[in-house]
Amino acid sequence: MKNVNIFIILKLVLLTQVKPIQRPLYVPMIENVYPKAFIENKSYSYDKVLIFDIDHTLYKFSDQLHEAEREGHKRVIEKYKNCNPESLYLDGFPIDFDKCYSTFNITPLEYELLKEVDYAKYIQRASSKLINYLSNCKYKKCCFTNGLKWRAQQILQKLEIEEYFDCVIVTSDEGEAPIMKPEEKAFLFVEGLLDVKPGQIYFFDDKLDNIVAAWERGWNGFLVGKDEDLVDLVIRSGLN
Fold first, then answer.
1. How far apart are CA 59 and CA 154, in angstroms?
2. Residue 8 CA: distances (Å) to CA of 12, 15, 149
């Protein structure tokens, strides 16, 4: 009987413990909405955190992939031209996600799926240099992208680096006005999610507007040049 009671107590202890989060956790940017499990998990304490954009940062966006996305964009326009002729005159590519509703009356995710782009076809495994750095880096690592989970997950898996990130912060695939970089709301969301001070964040992105917005928040921001080696840039960033 005593052994049975001990077994029950141990089982209750295990059930009440915070379960480890399966890496990475994909988190959509929704103002003041944070995953409870992520916040409560005590293993997620941050000294410094590395945050990476994905496109043109973790990999170089090829001309072939750019053309495939453009053709996908044309397919969406062709599908909806009869119900909204103005869609033929869109001057933005890639399209701003808030235009998905105003132009096509579809969600950003529906827009991505209608493009029918096979990202795995255009992306190769990341370099051994990058994989080795990410796998051995002692700091927490996150991705911070204006893309959707559906897109980011395909790319990170094809690069074979998804497992090295603690979380991937993505654009919400719902809502008429999704939060995106370089809006201040996007950077505030990251700070709230990770519960860190701006000075603890080391942020790498290929777009100057995003880096400037990060600087304005007090982040350590580093612009990734077109031909820049990301690992070399991270090493030069001053991380101990």
1. 13
2. 6, 11, 40
Residue type, 70: R
What DSSP character marks residue 105?
S
Domain boundaries of the chain, sorted by first residue: 19-60+124-237, 63-120
CATH assignment of 19-60+124-237, given 3.40.50.620, 3.40.50.1000, 3.10.450.50, 3.10.20.30? 3.40.50.1000
Alpha helices per DSSP H over the chain: 2-16, 36-40, 63-80, 99, 108-115, 128-136, 149-159, 184-194, 208-217, 230-236
Q: What type of residue is 58?
A: L
Alpha-carbon span 58 to 80, nearest angstrom: 34
pLDDT digits (tens, 9 = 90+) for 158-214: 999 999 999 999 999 876 678 999 999 999 999 999 989 999 999 999 999 999 999
* Cα–Cα distance, 43 to 240 (Å, whole number): 21
> Which of helix, strand or coil describes residue 27?
strand
pLDDT digits 0-9 by tens, 104-122: 788 888 888 988 999 989 9
What is the SS3 assignment for 95?
A: coil
Whole-model pTM: value is 0.84
Q: Whole-angstrom Cα distance, residue 68 to residue 77?
A: 14
Q: How deeply is 32 buried, as exposed, middle or buried, from its count of CB atoms within 10 A (0-12, 13-18, 19+)?
A: exposed
> Which residues are within 8 A (CB) of 210 and not within 5 positions of it... i.e. 6 or more apart?
53, 181, 182, 221
Q: Which of 24, 19, 16, 17 lies closest to 164, judged by CA?
A: 24
Tell me the CA end-to-end span of the chain in Å, nearest whole number.
Answer: 55
